[in-house]
Write a structure and sequence with these properties.
This protein is α+β, with helices and mostly antiparallel strands. It contains 5 helices and 6 strands, in the order H-E-E-H-E-H-E-E-E-H-H. It has helices at about 1-60, 75-85, 115-120, 170-205, 215-219, and strands spanning about 60-65, 70-75, 100, 125-135, 140-150, 155-165. The chain has a 6-stranded antiparallel sheet with strand order 2-1-6-5-4-3, sandwiched between helices. It is elongated and about 155 Å long. The termini are far apart.
């Protein structure tokens, strides 16, 4: 009887060890699979991060993000250069620091409430909001600013993305076009005024004007 019990106990022990070993192996395999999945997820995340950073660093637009408190969260290198132009002495990272920022006319200083960052912090959406930046009037740059805030489900401010597109060349071309049109208009006005004056003199004596010539003079 003792031999049978010992044999049974030995068999049960072996079976328990085998089951435990099998369970342990299964757990080890599952843990290894989970570790590999985690490593792949981390690698994918890092790759996606590198991809996003490559895009942000290569675009010809200054990008700025604000956090839920309205503080600067991040910016791309392009916007960093814009910041150096607006704040040559350095930025304190607040949304109400004015710096050398001006209205669409290029000369009127923006009030705090007119700053794109301040308006973004208060939940406003902007499209092509024109500002000028720079201390030296001859070196100022024009930017069309777009603001896209994002809100929580409760409707409170949760951050914003601002895009600064340099449109200095476009604004310069528009100014040159206006100057050209004004110059041409001025140059044409003098001879046209003289012509109109002489025609008015001719029309004072309608009786001596041939009938077929009168409509042309009136025109």
């Amino acid at each position: 009887a003792r031999m049978s019990q010992a044999l049974l106990l030995s068999t049960l022990t072996s079976l328990l060890v085998a089951v435990t070993a099998d369970l342990w192996h299964t757990k080890v395999v599952e843990a290894a699979d989970a570790q590999r999945m985690l490593e792949r997820a981390v690698a994918d995340s890092a790759e996606q991060r590198r991809f996003n950073e490559a895009i942000l660093n290569s675009v010809d637009v200054g990008l700025l993000t604000l956090d839920a408190n309205g503080a600067v969260h991040s910016m791309n290198p392009r916007h960093q250069r814009f910041m150096e132009l607006a704040y040559p002495d350095g930025s304190d990272g607040s949304t109400d620091q004015k710096g050398y920022t001006y209205a669409a006319d290029g000369f009127t200083e923006l009030a705090r409430e007119e700053l794109p960052t301040w308006r973004a912090m208060h939940g406003e959406t902007l499209r092509d909001y024109l500002i000028w930046v720079g201390e030296d009037p001859g070196l100022r740059r024009a930017f069309a600013v777009s603001v896209s805030p994002f809100l929580t489900p409760e409707g409170t401010f949760d951050g914003a993305v601002l895009a600064y597109h340099d449109v200095t060349e476009l604004m310069t071309a528009a100014r040159l076009k206006d100057e050209f049109v004004a110059t041409v208009s001025h140059e044409l006005r003098t001879p046209l005024t003289s012509i109109v004056g002489y025609v008015d003199v001719l029309l004072e004596d309608v009786a001596d004007i041939p009938a077929e010539a009168l409509p042309f003079l009136q025109t």
